[in-house]
Amino acid sequence: MNAPAKLGPARRREQLSDEVAGYLRVAIMSGTLRPGTFVRLDETAAQLGVSITPVREALRTLRGEGMVQLEPHRGHMVSPFTRDDIADIFWLQGAIAAELAATAARRATDADIDELERLTEDLDAAVRGGEVEPIARAEFHFHRAFNRTTNRMKLAWFLLHAARYLPPHIYASDPTWGQDAVVNHRQLTAAMRRREVDEVVRLTRSQFDDGARRLTSLLDSLGLWT
């Protein structure tokens, strides 16, 4: 995993805590921080360029999510997780996303679909450029625009929070994922043009099924469960 950018000292403490939690969450889900590893306050704070306080608050958040556990007199340790946990996370995201997709297929205007096609071309350009950050950003913008077509922002909010467990840069750094994502989005927008609700839902679910397979395969290759 690449070294994180320094977090700006002027940002609000709550935002810093959220960013630290996000960084640690991705490190855990991508296998960089393995189960049984202790997360050291001072080391993490120094690595991210923040004080110990937002790290402590981030660990409290992750403890509430069951991602770390507090060992008396020893500190916070990454909790065990299994292949079933990965499957459950993606099942939840896929179920929510499928409901949003059905609504998008019915409600999206031609202008909405035009915008999604433009964002797909942005993703294609980013994938061809090969830089991880632009790829991850382009993918985020596509899904944000897609979800906004539904006008079901409460449900989209739940999906956004479930998606916190996805390590986006793992996918964005995989050339085959980027190429497959562009193909998927082109097929998705074409199905939306035709108002093929079932096909839009199928293509949406397939993204999450693919994501689960890729992440499980990565963690298998790292020997996470051996």
UniProtKB/TrEMBL annotation:
UniProt GO MF annotations: DNA binding; DNA-binding transcription factor activity
A Pfam family it matches: FCD
Organism domain of life: Bacteria
Transcription regulation recorded as keyword: yes
HTH gntR-type domain segment(s): 14-81
PANTHER family listed in its UniProt record: GLUCONATE OPERON TRANSCRIPTIONAL REPRESSOR, TRANSCRIPTIONAL REGULATOR, GNTR FAMILY
Full protein name: GntR family transcriptional regulator
Organism: Mycolicibacterium neoaurum VKM Ac-1815D
